[in-house]
Amino acid sequence: MNLTIEKLAKEYTTKDGKVNAINNINLVINKSDFVTITGPSGSGKSTLLLSLFGLIKPSSGKIFFDDKRIDNISDSALAKIRKNHIGFIMQNFALIPYLTTVQNVMIPLSLLGVNKSEQIKRATEVLEFVGLKNRLNHLPRQLSIGQQQRVAIARALVHNPSVILADEPTGNLDPALSLEILDFLKKINTEKGITVIMVTHSPTAAEYGNKKIKLNNGELVN
Amino acid sequence: MNTFKIIWLELWKRKSQLISGILAITLGIAVIVAIQSISVVSKQNVAKKLDNLGANILVLPQGTSIDDYYTSDIDAPTLPMEYVERILTSSISGVDNMSPKLTRRVKVGETSIVLTGILPKSEIASKPLWQNAGLVGAELETACAPSNAENKSQGFEDEKLKRKVIDTLNRYDCLLGSQISKKLKLVENSKITINSQEFKAVKVLPETGTVDDDRVFAHITTVQELLNAPDQISTIEIMGCCNAISEGLLGKLRNILPDTRITTINQIVSTQIETNRLMDKVTLIFLIIIFFVGGISMGNYIWANVNERHKEIGVLRMMGASKGMIYKLFLFKAVFLGIVGGILGFVIGTIAGMLLGPYLAGMSVQPLYMYLLWSLLLSIVIALTGTVIPAYLASKIDPHTNLQEE
């Protein structure tokens, strides 16, 4: 997998005029990279991350995923790429509250049309990998914060994505738990060869990346 | 895990919302089913009462007026008896009963009377007041044409009508209208001589308040012989189904009997048609109200549900669910609620109709199982109509803003 970004920009119109959330971003991300994106609040970190696979539509610029341009393709085509190739981890975990741990992890497989027994098998395996094999039928509210984030990681991993996008994955965690999650992400990156692109405030977390990007006022800082 | 499981688990998780969503549809459908159940029975009841008033279509010879029909002039034109067969053997539906008759003014001594030849079974069937007096006629089945055999006389009497002596008339038997019996001072079993032929009065008919009170009735074949009018009749009185009349029964009859005058007794026909129309209008008004109220309630419920599930929708979109899948998620949910609401609405509406029918309409109401299908269709349409816009808006929800919400 490689991801090439050329002159990417996102402009918002507010009552005070136009604001460039990100501007003139050029970037190349290769397979197995662990990319960290840091910068002050409002610097455009999350906008850049979410623009990569169509969760935010960029105003201009080009994005190539495996040499195929994806910034101008249809919503359904982007949804298909996300379904097949991308795993997401959010700061707030984004678990569905009425589904059990294993059911939450089965969702990406369900979207791919995998049969039920295979869904259960693969979800159980990945939950075992993140250390939650004995929490399969717990609801999210019955889990600790750290366990909930590990469920989110399992859900991001279950369909063997080539890229994991993580938006402040340790933002709600205490330092010990943060390190635990970051170690997981590093393990996924090194053991499975999955590219990780992570937005973070934390300098400690930023050190996990082999490619470190810093944004300020929507622009890359060298 | 699949789309339906997600819908089911979500419904189960939010039980109070589930109940209120189903209730909105259930109550609407229940009201429609209850009204319709009572309305159908009411229509049948009105139809029966109007049938009691007798014939509503007259087939007269061409050029004959209604006056001629009532005055029965001696030289009034006639129709061939074969016309009755022609109707019976046609494929026309909606003819409930036919009473061919030959009517003439004749003298009994110095008194002028109206002698009417009838087919006893058909005539009695069309005269409920006669039936109350102990005469038994053919059993009427609404909207069904009588079979050929039912109206055929065997010789001078109907073989099938021997359950009571008065079901039929022997060759020289007659029935007396209440007024004519008083005028001629005749009672049951009296003898009466008409055109030199002696008849036995087997029954004095009850007072009906119609021209029948002043008439003497004998078997049509006897009268045809007596009046030297073989195979001739003055008129065919028809009890037609009112709906069939409004759907062109008269035109169909005119097609097979072109040289006749076919007319309706307007008051009877228009009363039933107007009653039916009024009931249809009431049902339609309720249907429209319920369609809007049900649709809006459903839309409101789904919109609240969409708002509550912003984050969930965002998660699904983030993981690769297309807008179409989000759209379908809500539409499937609406179909599910529609099915459950339709079935419950049918059951509750039917029970309400059965319980309230006797109080509101004075009649017992039976379940109309055909309405289960209509209830299901209607409730699904209402649920989908109310859901289309909120579901469309849900599919447009921007995933990233909702994912970042806390």
Write up this protein.
The complex is a heterodimer of chains A (222) and B (406). With 222 residues, chain A is an alpha/beta fold. Chain A has a single domain (31-54, 78-221), classed as P-loop containing nucleotide triphosphate hydrolases (Rossmann fold, 3-Layer(aba) Sandwich). Chain A is 35% helix and 28% strand. A 6-stranded mixed β-sheet of chain A has the order 6-7-8-3-9-10, sandwiched between helices. In chain A, strands 2-1-4-5 form a 4-stranded antiparallel β-sheet, covered by helices on one side. In chain A, strand 9 (211-216) and strand 10 (219-221) form a beta hairpin. Chain A starts with a strand and ends with a strand. Chain B has 406 residues and is of the alpha+beta class. Chain B has 2 domains: 3-47 and 274-403, no CATH class; 56-264, no CATH class. Chain B has 16 helices and 11 strands. In chain B, the strands form 2 sheets. Chain B has a 9-stranded mixed β-sheet. In chain B, strands 2-9 form a two-stranded antiparallel sheet. In chain B, a hairpin with a 2-residue loop joins strand 3 (95-108) and strand 4 (111-118). In chain B, helix 2 (15-52) crosses helix 14. The radius of gyration of chain B is 32 Å and the shape is elongated. The two termini of chain B are 26 Å apart.
The fraction of residues in strands of chain A falls at 25-35%
Shape of chain B: elongated
Q: Which architecture name of chain A does CATH use?
A: 3-Layer(aba) Sandwich
Quaternary structure: heterodimer
Low-confidence stretches of chain A: none
Counting DSSP H or I runs of 4 or more residues, the number of helices of chain B is 16
CATH homologous superfamily of chain A - what is it? P-loop containing nucleotide triphosphate hydrolases
The side-by-side strand order for the widest beta sheet of chain B comes to: 6-7-5-8-4-3-10-1-11
Spatial shape of chain A: globular
Distance between the termini of chain A: 24 Å
Q: What proportion of the residues of chain A is helical, as a percent range?
A: 25-40%
Number of DSSP E strands of chain A:
10
In round numbers, the mean pLDDT of chain B is 79
Number of helical segments of chain A?
7
Strand order of the main beta sheet of chain A, please?
6-7-8-3-9-10
